[in-house]
Amino acid sequence: MTPELVIETQELTKRYGEAIVAVDDLDLRVRRGEVYGFLGPNGAGKTTTLRMLLGLVRPTSGRAVVLGARPGAPAGLARIGAMIETPAFYPYLSGRDNLRVLARYAGVPEERVEAVLDQVSLTDRAADRSGKYSIGMKQRLGIAAALLKDPELLILDEPTNGLDPAGMVEMRAFIRSLGQGGRTVILSSQLMGEVEQVTDRVGVIRGGVLVAEGTLEELRGGRASLRVRAEPQPEAARLIRALPDVAEVTSVDGLLDVTVDPSQAATINRALVQGGIAVSELYAQKASLEDVFLELTKSGGEPS
């Protein structure tokens, strides 16, 4: 394992009986200091993978190294903070007292409790019983618990679950800040827009198999197009299709979506104007993370 890698897996596999393969030959590389988005549809194997990395689930085969140690080793766990699925707390204790209990178990100075409560903006409600917390507040408390040890590696499974729009914006900035100063964050989420704005690299898992990994730009690859608003549209579409290098022209929300290198914008505009077509809009359209995700995870499909 090279020094810049925080997590490295080789052919990591988890089977349940003969019929169910939750994770299949997974080769994962997470670099130090990055925010890594771990994405996949429900049942793709995300949570099983995260549990194996933490030593909560034993792999059927393959190997993993986390912070230079085997998953679940005390030396590694002391430097990891995690929130997997829905966090659980003593409902009759306050948020602050729940964290105090966890701090004692982890051997963490109690001063860290107030520090993490402030980090997740929960100080004002810290004296309330956690059983009265909303889902969003419980998520914040779960992240505070994960931060108690001031970990090198932070694993967050659906951290924005239950947050209102304002809370999501705040959490997005918070996660981005966590991935600075050498700390590494693995973020598993179904909210593509949130992941797109905070991650450095992304891994996409489907049916237990890692189907793509890289920066957003790398995953987009050639998935770029031009959007054209022109009248009359049928004639504009005919002229564009006749041009070289144009792969496809389709109608999307009243505009023409042209599958072509965006550098051809001037050529297309010139051809339309010379053909007597009125062009009111012409701009490049990059594929969003959601577009890429849907293509990579579509049923029966293969990534392009």
What does this structure look like?
The chain is α/β, with parallel strands linked by helices. The protein has helices at residues 46-53, 74-77, 95-106, 111-119, 135-147, 165-178, 192-198, 216-220, 233-241, 265-274, 289-297; strands at residues 5-16, 20-26, 29-31, 35-39, 61-66, 80-83, 153-157, 184-188, 201-206, 209-214, 224-231, 248-252, 255-259, 278-286. The strands form 3 sheets. It has a 6-stranded mixed beta sheet with strand order 6-7-8-4-9-10, sandwiched between helices. Strands 1, 2, 3 and 5 form a 4-stranded antiparallel beta sheet that branches. Strands 12-13-11-14 form a 4-stranded antiparallel beta sheet, with helices on one face. β9 (201-206) and β10 form a beta hairpin. The longest helix has 14 residues, at 165-178. The two termini are 30 Å apart.
SSE order, as H and E? Answer: EEEEHEHEHHHEHEHEEHEHEEHEH
Overall mean pLDDT stands at 87
Beta-strand residue fraction = 25-35%
Q: Regions with pLDDT < 50 over 5+ consecutive residues?
A: 300-304
Largest sheet: 6 strands, mixed
Radius of gyration: 24 Å
What structural category characterises the helix and strand content? alpha/beta
Which sequence of strands runs across the widest sheet? Answer: 6-7-8-4-9-10
Overall spatial form: elongated
The assembly state of the depicted protein chains is single chain
In DSSP terms (H or I, runs of 4 or more residues), the helix count works out at: 11
Helical content stands at: 25-40%
Please report the distance between the alpha carbons of the first and last residues.
Answer: 30 Å
Count of β-strands: 14
